[in-house]
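ARCHIVE CARD
Drawer: 12
Card no.: 0347
Subject: one protein chain, sequence and derived structure
Cross-reference: see card 0346
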Amino acid sequence: MSILEYNGGAVVAMVGKNCVAIASDLRYGVQAQTVACNFPKVHKMSDRLFVGLSGLATDIQTLEQLLRFRLNLYKLREERDIKPETFSALLSHILYEKRFGPYFVEPLVAGLRAEDNTPFISGMDLIGAPVFAKDFVVAGTCAANLYGLCESFFKPDLEPEQLFEVLSQSLLASVDRDALSGWGAVVHVITPDGVTSRTLKARQD
């Protein structure tokens, strides 16, 4: 088993029309044993920026605290919120800096650009090699399932409610076919007016 699969988990981000959504499952496990079902892997970095972290649970918590620290420093120095592109570059730099003893985490970044409300998503591997997408990015133990379902359901310029529905159905159907993720999910839809967060019920087996 890969160390990235030790605790299980699934994260997915998808773009819509002037909105973006990011979701994760809630399972925290030790290989096949489920320990808890209240472990979200998506973290709010600012009003219009979220990061999803899948991989080893201890590294997820360490990296999330480090990102908050670096963001607070950025805010103090720059006196403004960080742009999604800048945050993605910062995260990539942090991961590459530790490439010889990496954080076992595959992050996704989702946010809205403040100037024109266009969505931004990116994903990267554990040493920070980024990929920028115009539709969706996925990570976690059921990434293969998520790719197939997101490709089937995704359409350009989805409204926020449609985006929520597409993302939710893709995630729930994917984790049902993966023993290492699931047990509930949480979805955040970011729009110019604010963030809507919803918790989904899922199969508990």
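Annotation on reverse: The radius of gyration is 16 Å. The longest helix spans residues 57-78.
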